[in-house]
User: Fold this.
Amino acid sequence: MMKARVCVVTAGHLSTCPRMLKAADALAGAGYDVRVVSANHTPWAAITDRKVLATRAWASTVIDYDRDTARARQVVTGLRFRGARTLSAALGSGRVPMPLAIRAYSRIHDELVSAVSAEPADFVYGGTTGALAAVAEAATQLRVPYGIDFEDLHSAEYVADSEVNNALAARIERQVIAGAAFATAGSPMIADAYAQTYGVRPIPVHNTFSISPPHVAAERRDRPLRLYWFSQTLGIGRGIEEILRGIGKMGGPAELHLRARSVRPYLDSLLALQHEVAPNLLIVGHEPAAPDDMVQLAQQYDVGIASDEPLGLSRQFCLANKIFTYLAAGVPVIMSRTPAQATLERSLDGAAFGYDCGDIDGIAQMLARFSSNPDLLNQARCAARAAAERRWHWEHPEDRGALLAAVAGAIR
Assistant:
């Protein structure tokens, strides 16, 4: 009997969209014939993409619009995207024709549709902003059902230039969710927000990860407290400034390790702030890494930081994948009390330590407790691993299992 064919789609790099990477792996592991459609446009991510693909057996189609390797497509897609956005702004995001709205929201919509529909499939599943409409259109061309992933609340994702981006997102969300066999969401609060707006509640599938083998942490008594934060980009709105100020008030020595692609002016301002308020702190930068390595890389640190500021509803409702990376690594989390993260904190039983945004004294007090009490830190590490084993891992029935059940139900 022929395997059911599933096409997984992202408008971003494969290695910068761990949700679609995990979905592809899960579906292939469950016996589906999987093909992944993704993009290439950023040199550092292209390197991590190659590392990911070298260890996968499923098929891959990459839409290249990098300046150096696909200059013609980079120019064409850029002109189309900017033209569509200009017209959308002039006509109004709510009145511009839908085909134009889609192209103002997704730079490579046409290329995604062509790539997905170029080969037979029995089901199409995809996420990231630029892929939402393409998943629906390609599935329609193939005459197969589709599923949509809302990792974020896309229609409330942008703060700057919000009228154009958020209004375009809302139109596309409304269209694609209506025709989807199912939708998934990155957190329960995001799922609730979609249910309230569109009358359809996506299935919450958390940004969890597979648990790494136990790691023996280095002795804390002979070195500074080692803090860790990672993301794709180091920039404003991530709450790092508050962490710096908290470290400065803590008084003792500390290291803050930042793994991300940095924006130079922002990094310069961060280093200037560190010099001013936290001379006891050493900031160490690290290059982005492949998603397969992230849990293991986190294990060498004492505490993980999830300090996002509540800028916009999407940020308030999301649960960052860094939180679950830390837990899978057996590393406790200090996190800002956004609405979603505050709710999660209450379920983590000593593995997470929350603070209210702006509470520098609270941050300092937590860090001081960890710095001066190695036993407390060891207890928190054990609690983090226990939380991951109990619930917060990718193989849990409510995460990977929920996705596989939804796909199986859609293909029947």
About this structure: The chain has a mean pLDDT of 94. Residues 71-91 form the longest helix (21 residues). The first strand starts at residue 5 and ends at 10.
